[in-house]
Design goal:
There is one protein chain. By secondary structure, the protein is an alpha+beta fold. It is 21% helix and 31% strand. It has a four-stranded antiparallel beta sheet with strand order 1-2-3-4. Strand 2 and strand 3 form a beta hairpin. The longest helix has 10 residues. It is globular, with a radius of gyration of 13 Å. 17% of the residues are buried.
Amino acid sequence: MTSDAIQYSEIRELPLESVLALYRANEWSSAQKPELLHKALLASHSLVTAWDGTRLIGLGNAISDGCLVVYYPHLLVLPEYQGQGIGRA
């Protein structure tokens, strides 16, 4: 898959199962707390997702005080899509 076919979105309509599949594929323990993970992502200051059609293949979020400080706690890309510049985009 080329990164040209990847669509990026800031829309916060995230199917929980898609989020969990992404976190599990990257072996992140956050997948063990699905409701809290989903709630936390939706409450992020910024949230960007990457999609290959209807498949969630990447996600990054930011937490900020809105003035000076930004923290990027999560940046995940499905393993089979890594190395294509998706996280960098």
